[in-house]
Amino acid sequence: MGGERERNEHGQYVDRIPPEAPLEVFESRTDAARPLTATDVMEALGCSRRTAHNKLAELVDRGELETRKVGARSRVWWVPLEAAPDEGADVAPGGLEDEGAPAQIAEAIRSADLPGAGRTLEARREALRAAYAYIVDHPSATKSDFLEHVYPTHPAEYETAEGWWNAIQPALKELPGVDPPEERGHIWNFLGDDRFKPTLG
Fold first, then answer.
1. C-alpha span between 185 and 29 (Å, rounded)
2. If 0-12 CB within 10 Å is exposed, 13-18 middle and 19+ buried, where does residue 44 land?
3. Which of the four CATH numbers 1.10.10, 3.30.420, 1.20.1250, 1.10.357 does domain 103-190 have?
4. Which of 10, 27, 33, 82 has the highest count of CB atoms within 10 angstroms of its CB?
5. pTM
6. Please, which residues bridge with residue 70 across strands?
7. What percent of the chain has pLDDT over 90?
């Protein structure tokens, strides 16, 4: 029959979708920073959800994609960003270069609207830098994640986590690549952009 699927020499069905096909879906996005879901890939390739997941998992195994679970049952994939080859600075924990970040990020943190002066202001800039490093390493994070993982080591002279968050989050959402939630308590995303390409992971 004309609709019968092609088989190989061993009698197995031939996969009509090449392994690299999902990468073309990523390359064709209008927003190159947006992570994709299996549904995005499934719809673009006209394949089943299982096939989309299998193709994406294979690309993750090959190091061509990164993935992360978001929410209870959802997962997103993205193309990992690489540091420019001429940037030979050591990479510090948190995925940002030694001395904190590329010049643009360092300048954005220096000019952020944070309360205080002198050593207090420096401590708050360092807390903002730590929060930024956290979202680079954890591209989908909630307010409670920041309060649990960043506030205890960078309290920035705030006695309460809520006071700390009220100062840090308005500045954090202005930094490049940060996509803040529209509603309180929802997920903060790091999308990255052409101006800053951190090493994730």
1. 28
2. middle
3. 1.10.10
4. 33
5. 0.48
6. 74
7. 18
